[in-house]
Amino acid sequence: MTGFARAEGEHAGQRWIWELRSVNGRGLDLKLRLPPGFDALEPQARAAANGKFKRGSVQASLNLARDPTAAPPIKIDLALVERLLAAGESFEGRVKKPSWDGLLAIRGVVQSEDSVELSEAERAAFEAALMAGFTIALDGLAAARQTEGRALAAIFSEAADRMDALIAAARSSASAAPAAAVERIRQRLETLAPELKIDPTRLAQEAAIAATRADVQEELERLAAHALELRMLISKPEAAGRRLEFLSQELTREANTLCSKSADLELTRIGLDLKTVVDQIKEQAANVE
């Protein structure tokens, strides 16, 4: 869920630049930095982001600057000029009549570009242009996140392949468990009491009990089902981050149970390898939309 996007443009002599950055997050958190006087854009920006993303911490900043190639707007306060002329009528004949350049030099007659206020229609058009630029930036950020998503899908697919191989190895190891249990019990009894004659029936019963306790077929079936679910999740276009996190919890539970039930060193090694793969899946799930 990481990415960066930038969009810029110009409207009525004003240049604008949107910059968006995204990092991992369990939910969607949009942090906006807007110039003074543009707070009205925030609800629209949040609605647009919510329509595009489900998870991630997104930082969006808007910068405005006067286009240096455009002539700055000029606004003359004619009402102030009229008041100044009216105030000077009482001095007619005693002082020189004011010149136009003199009137323009009076503070407040010519307004600076920063003090020129937009009309309601001009403000609406400017905000519409800014929101169109924000939408372009959102699309760019989504494309960047999709590129990361394709790389993550390859990682999850490889993890599913490794899980399938380990599950197959675990099945092979578990199938040999009953015979191995009989041999272990036989060797233990012969070591502890070599003079005793071992009852084959009793030995088979003890081996059956040990094999039942160490039976991991259900865990392996669930692990195989989870590996299939992993492949299905990464192949769908819908957001899968939360389901992947839940799936990784289920995989962790099954891998832990497999290790706890194992009475064989080889099966234990396979279980530990499975836990390593599951930890990798859990780590990468936090990066998924």
Number of helical stretches of at least 4 residues: 9
Strand/helix succession: EEEHEEHHEHHHHHH
Shape: rod-shaped
Walk across the major sheet and give the strand order: 1-2-4-3
Number of strands: 6
CA radius of gyration = 37 Å
Calculate the mean pLDDT score and round it: 82
The span between the termini is 6 Å
Structural class: alpha+beta
- Estimated helix fraction: 55-70%
Runs in which pLDDT lies below 50 for 5 or more consecutive residues are none
Proportion of beta-strand residues: 5-15%
Major sheet: 4 strands, mixed
Outline the structure in words:
With 289 residues, this protein is α+β, with helices and mostly antiparallel strands. Helix content is 61%, strand content 14%. The protein is built from nine helices and six strands. Helix 4 runs antiparallel to helix 7 (217-235), helix 4 runs antiparallel to helix 9 and helix 7 packs antiparallel against helix 8 (241-261).
Could you outline the blueprint of secondary structure elements for this entry?
Blueprint: E1 3-11, E2 14-23, E3 28-33, H1 41-52, E4 56-66, E5 75-76, H2 78-88, H3 100-105, E6 110-111, H4 120-175, H5 177-192, H6 200-213, H7 217-235, H8 241-261, H9 265-285
Parallel strand pairs: 3-4
Antiparallel strand pairs: 1-2, 2-4, 5-6
Helix pairs in contact: 1-4, 4-7, 4-9, 5-6, 7-8, 8-9
Brief rundown of the structure:
The protein is of the alpha+beta class and 289 residues long.
What key attributes describe this structure?
single chain, 289 residues, alpha+beta, two-stranded antiparallel sheet
